[in-house]
Write a structure and sequence with these properties.
The complex is a heterodimer of chains A (175) and B (428).
Chain A lengths: L6 E6 L6 H4 L37 E4 L11 H8 L4 E4 L4 H9 L3 E4 L2 H11 L5 E5 L4 E6 L2 E6 L4 H9 L2 H8 L1
Chain B lengths: L4 H9 E6 L2 E5 L2 E5 L4 H9 L11 E4 L9 H16 L5 E2 L7 H7 L8 E4 L13 E4 L2 H10 L1 E5 L2 E8 L8 H12 L7 E6 L1 H4 L3 H9 L9 E3 L3 H11 L6 H9 L11 E6 L6 E3 L7 E3 L10 E4 L1 H4 L2 H11 L9 E4 L4 H9 L2 H8 L1 E3 L20 E4 L14 E4 L2 H10 L11
Parallel strand pairs in B: 3-4, 3-6, 4-5, 6-7, 9-10, 9-12, 10-11, 15-16, 15-18, 16-17, 18-19
Antiparallel strand pairs in B: 1-2, 2-8, 13-14
Helix pairs in contact in B: 2-5, 6-8, 9-10, 12-14, 12-15
Classes of the chains: A alpha/beta (175), B alpha/beta (428).
């Protein structure tokens, strides 16, 4: 079952946003994903960013480099998942975070730095909607009548993980 | 063409190549702790697949919050305990026998050169100190590891860090790794294996090599690998003596994993440490490092000695040397947490615990505790801690707290002075 990769964009204009900022360690004692829901990005400090309200009505993150660095905690993708975020777009990701996203059937898509720059310039600060054309590998961003089509690449392996719903499904059928 | 140690290990364990550049490898060891294993267990139960690929290759410990601090963490322990029991996992380390995973499991001889190891914990890269490919993964990778004994990785490309020169007195492996992270940045080794070589690494004990490899992930590294040598063989000898005729035989067997002289690297960095000083982090990222000398005005509320980075016997010995006959500042709370029962016992037998207690430290049981702000030394808003741990992220040791990463020597000296300071062991 493929997930939904369309929605409104939350822009996080900083590199190296770490797992402790995505979901603080004190919530790791939780044993349900739902319990993480109110705490997404709770400790993230960004000018003008209010974690209480910033994520409302948003379900795609566009950010800079090395998103998800730090801990291996899959609680970070889960905290995104239970808040309806199934797609993060960044210049690059910490390895474990990126793998965790695809392992859950979600997407962590890397775009070149200049493309990320361009997206921030054209769309940050505006109500931005993103549609994913999974077959043609294109993101379509729209804001205030302005539109941009951004091609993306994911490997065949990552694509397969997204299609089957994650690594457990994939590995169970194959190994 | 020559191969790196990571490439040799991958090729010896390759099960599948699901796409170009992606390799599924067979696992020699799957490590589990109570924080990240539970949702894997629950998911396996829900899928009707509550089984393990090989109970002897799965090692389990309760370490992050121990003893349990509340009902939730008690439930985490209970779920892990019952799972290990019903799946006949005999290497399960519960309270009294438990210690920090990345210190305890090497101490038990569970990691060998050439092994592949995963754990749902980012500091799993520590075990690369033994010439193994060891990597932190998420819970889903762990779940598949538990069930199938395999894991998918990008084919490894390696950055070699050749650590040269000679380490000045009073400067330690922690300072070396902080200097490397400061140099290449927190994103400098993302998706890459770090290989630590050179005379300085060759001269290091296994404890120091583990400190080095432990923080590979703070530069984004998948694993931090040291080549196996006689130091590795000596450390493991009690566990491997029946497998080899003598230590030379073991060494010969293990050395085959070492990178070939014509191996291809992504990058080779010559890192001369002859003029290295004790370092300290100053921001919320582990690559924000500066010499301790330049930072003397920072007052601290707490000093924390422990963790998978610096909770080993060697670390406690250095700190105790600094503290011998001294008292810590009245304004500082000192906490020392020996990383395993064996280390605790050793520290007791060597009189180190007396030194800590006489100086005014609190000695805790082995646990990850304060490092990630879960128990045993969480900071209040606005407080500052000099810590021998590995992460200074905002809020890591408690919301609104500030963590400065340092070596055990610097931590001990800081406890005495009340502000971040060099120890007298450093003569520079």
């Amino acid at each position: 079952m493929m997930r939904n990769f369309n929605g409104n964009v939350l822009f996080l204009d900083r590199s190296d946003i770490n797992t402790d900022e995505i979901i603080p360690a004190k919530y790791l004692a939780e044993i349900s994903k739902q319990a993480l829901k109110p705490h997404l990005l709770e400790d993230l400090k960004l000018p003008g960013f209010d974690p209480q309200h910033a994520v409302d009505g948003k379900n795609i993150i566009i950010t800079r480099a090395n998103f998800g660095c730090g801990s291996s905690r899959e609680h970070a993708p889960w905290a995104l998942e239970v808040n309806g975020f199934h797609l993060v777009i960044a210049e690059n990701f910490a390895r474990i975070f990126r793998q965790n996203m695809f392992n859950c059937g979600m997407m962590a898509v890397e775009l070149p730095a200049q493309t990320i720059d361009r997206i921030f310039k054209e769309f940050d600060g505006k109500e931005t909607h993103l549609e994913t054309d999974f077959e043609k590998n294109v993101f379509i961003l729209t804001a205030e009548g302005h539109q941009a089509k951004i091609p993306f690449f994911i490997s065949d392996f990552d694509r397969d993980l997204v299609k089957v719903g994650g690594w457990v499904e994939y590995a169970d059928a194959r190994y | 063409m020559g191969r790196t140690i990571a490439e040799k290990i991958f090729e010896a364990h390759r099960v599948d190549t699901p796409a170009q550049g992606v390799v599924v490898i067979r696992l020699d060891a799957v490590f589990c702790h109570e924080i990240t294993t539970l949702l894997a267990i629950n998911d396996l139960v829900n899928r009707g697949k509550d089984r393990v690929f090989d109970p002897d290759k799965i090692k389990v410990v309760i370490d992050h919050v121990s003893p349990a601090k509340d009902s939730k963490t008690a439930m985490q322990g209970k779920i892990l305990r019952e799972w290990a029991r019903r799946n006949h996992i005999s290497d399960f380390f519960d309270i009294g026998k438990n210690g920090i995973c990345h210190v305890l499991f090497p101490e038990k001889g569970f990691v060998r050169p050439g092994y592949t190891v995963i754990m749902a914990d980012s500091h799993t890269c520590t075990h690369g100190a033994f010439g193994a490919f060891a990597a932190g993964v998420g819970t889903t990778d762990l779940e598949v590891g538990i069930l199938k004994g395999v894991c998918a990785f990008r084919y490894p490309s390696t950055i070699k860090i050749n650590v040269t020169g000679s380490l000045p007195e009073g400067v330690y492996a922690k300072d070396v790794i902080l200097s490397i992270i400061g140099r290449i940045g927190v994103n400098g080794a993302t998706n890459k294996v770090l290989e630590f070589t050179g005379p300085v690494v060759d001269a290091m004990s296994m404890e120091s090599r583990m400190t080095l490899s432990n923080m590979a992930v703070e530069a984004g590294g998948t694993s931090g690998i040291c080549w196996p040598d006689m130091t590795t063989v000596e450390y493991l000898w009690e566990f491997i003596k029946n497998e080899f005729t003598d230590k030379q035989d073991a060494l010969k067997n293990y050395r085959r994993f070492c990178s070939d002289s014509d191996a291809q690297y992504e990058q080779v960095i010559e890192h001369d440490v002859s003029n290295l000083e004790p370092l300290v982090t100053f921001g919320y990222k582990p690559d924000q490092v500066m010499p301790v000398r330049e930072m003397k005005s920072i007052k601290v509320d707490q000093v924390y000695l422990g963790s998978c980075t610096n909770g080993r016997i060697e670390d406690l010995r250095v700190a105790a040397r600094v503290l011998e006959g001294k008292k810590i500042s009245d304004s500082v709370r000192g906490i020392v947490s020996p990383a395993t029962p064996k280390i605790f016992r050793q520290a007791l037998a060597e009189g180190l615990l007396n030194t800590f207690l006489d100086a005014g430290f609190c000695v805790t049981n082995p646990t990850c505790g304060a490092c990630l702000g879960m128990s045993n030394g969480v900071l209040a808003e606005g407080e500052v801690c000099a810590s021998t741990t590995n992460r200074n992220f905002n809020g890591r040791m408690g919301k609104g707290g500030m963590v400065h990463l340092v070596s055990p020597a610097t931590a001990a000296a800081t406890a005495i002075k009340g502000y971040i300071a060099n120890s007298e062991l450093y003569k520079g």
